Structures are given as C-alpha cells and as structure tokens.
Amino acid sequence: MPELVPNGDRRMFSPLSTTLIYGERDAVLVDPPMTTTQAEAVGERIEAGGKNLTHIFATHGHGDHWFTAGVLAERFGAQVIATAGTIQQMHHNVSIRAAFWDAFLPGQIPDAPVTAVTVPDNRFTLEGHDLVIVEAGHSDTDDTSVLHVPDLELVVAGDVIYNGVHQFLVEAGHGGLEAWRAAIGIVEDLKPRWIVAGHKNKELDDDAIRAVSETRQYLDTVDELLLQHDSALGFFNAMLERFPKRLNPGALWGGAVALYS
Ligand SMILES: [Zn+2]
After folding, report:
1. CA 159 to ligand 1 centroid distance, Å
2. Which residues contact 228 (CB under 8 A, 6 or more apart)?
3. Does residue 171 have a pLDDT over 60?
4. Where are the domains of the chain?
5. Distance, CA 61 to ligand 1 centroid (Å)?
6. DSSP at 151
7. Rounded to two decimals, what is the model's pTM?
C-alpha cells in the first residue's frame, strides 16, 4: 500500500487471526490467511500438530480471510465451507482482486478459485462436537458469520468482533454501524467465554466480555465523533486520541476517508 497515513504510518493490512480447533485426531481451520507465505507458515503448524484437517471454514468473504483456503485444502485434503452469503461475497472479492488485493500485494496471493460449499443447517462436527455457523449479517462487510463451539464456550468471530485493532469502517456507511451493532448482539447472545477476533493484537487475551464491549464502544465513539468533526482528518485524529493503543491506524484512515467522501 503506497500512500502514507496522516500520522506518518505506512498503509498495511491489519494483523489476521487464523484459528485451529482440534480434537484427538481431527482439526478444523477457521479463516485461512491471504498470502502464499502465510499459508506455508500455517500449513507447517498444522503439519507439526499431526492432526487430520477435515474442514476449512471462512467467516466472511474478505480475501484476507480466505484467499489461501484452496491451497491449504489441497495440501491437507480438507473441504472448504462457508455460508451461501459468504460464498457470494467470495465471488465478489475474486472479481476485484486484480484492482484491489493484488494491487497491494502483487504476486503474493495464490490462485483462489471459490471452492467453498455450504453445509446442511450451517452445522458440522469435530469428533462428535457441534460446530455451529451463526449468520450475523452485515458487520464490517456484508453476509458475515461466526463459528460457535458450544463445548469450548468459544466463538471464532471473524470481523464481527475486533480485539485491540482499529475497526474497518470502509463499508460502514448507510446504516452499516447499526447492522454491526446487531451482529455484535448475536455473538453476545451466544454467551461465549472466549472470542477469537479476526483482527487482534496478539498481546491481548481472548476474553469475550471485554472484546464485545470494546467492539461496541468503538462503534459508539465513531457515531459520537462523526457528529463533532466535519473532516476525515479531524475525525481520524479524534479517534486516535480516544484509542491510542489500537493497532493499525491506517485501517482507521481508510474508513475515515470513506465515511467523509
Ligand atoms: Zn477482516
């Protein structure tokens, strides 16, 4: 990403979470990463764990959460799964990859045909334990979902919940923030103890109550500061003042520009 952020930062993608859930023999991967190099690192970790990878699940269609699904599925003989809405968004992200994703990371993203399929009733299992795909609608993009693992009191939340990283607001216009709040409520109603956020600061824990309340508080602050500032730069600076510790102000700047355009 060539241009600089007003605070002097380089533009970059936010840190990504890829989650491996495993039992005695089998494993499920949630949100495989974006680049060939990242997929190799994830593949080595899976191989070192010695589990049989049965499924790769993508929470939503943004390419940074699934472009290497095919590569990893082939390597481990796993099936790629997603909701029907996410599969539609995957096709959209493939259609813009040359103009958007590859423009930022030329040559680093592998071929990514959409191979994901849906599963009946949005449910599958890992050694007899239920894994439930819960559709959350629009959060930081359209047609997002989360993976609920009741026996672990865990939600792998994709982009519905953030943890210590500036939230992606580029698609937040036109009622997007209200829809996102509803999506957060859907996760909260699952009453998880742990949430793995799709974008997290790895120094932070996965406490569900904190992550839910901080994600919501960020959106409330966006609403508050949008009313107080009439320029993207004013809004951006005020947000940084409120959230000095969140990673990747560049993501916030992208959102600020979109919201004021
Ligand atoms: Zn994301």
Report:
1. 5
2. 234, 238
3. yes
4. 19-260
5. 9
6. G
7. 0.96
Residue 153's φ and ψ, nearest 5 degrees, are 50, 40
- pLDDT single digits (tens) 63-96: 999 999 999 999 999 999 999 999 999 999 999 9
Is there a contact between 180 and 140 (Cβ–Cβ < 8 Å)? yes
The interaxial angle of helices 249-260 and 232-242, nearest 10 deg, is 140
- Expressed in angstroms and rounded, the spacing between residue 140 Cα and the centre of ligand 1 is 8
Element (H or E) spanning 161, and its range? strand 154-163
Tell me the CA–centroid distance for residue 136 and ligand 1, in Å: 14
Fold of the domain spanning 19-260: Metallo-beta-lactamase; Chain A (3.60.15)
Burial of 121 (0-12, 13-18, 19+ CB in 10 A): exposed
CA distance 128 to 123: 12
CA distance 234 to 190: 37
Q: How far is the CA of 59 from the centre of ligand 1 (A)?
A: 9
Read out DSSP for 86-148?
HHHHHHHHHHTIIIIIHHHSTTTSPP-----B--GGGEEEETTEEEEEEEEE-SSSSSEEEEE
Which pLDDT score is estimated for 176?
94
Q: What is the DSSP letter of 56?
A: E
Specify the long-range contacts of residues 6-10, CB closer than 8 Å, at least 24 apart.
6/233, 6/236, 6/237, 6/253, 7/236, 7/240, 7/249, 7/253, 9/248, 9/249, 9/250, 10/250
Q: What is the pLDDT of residue 2?
A: 54
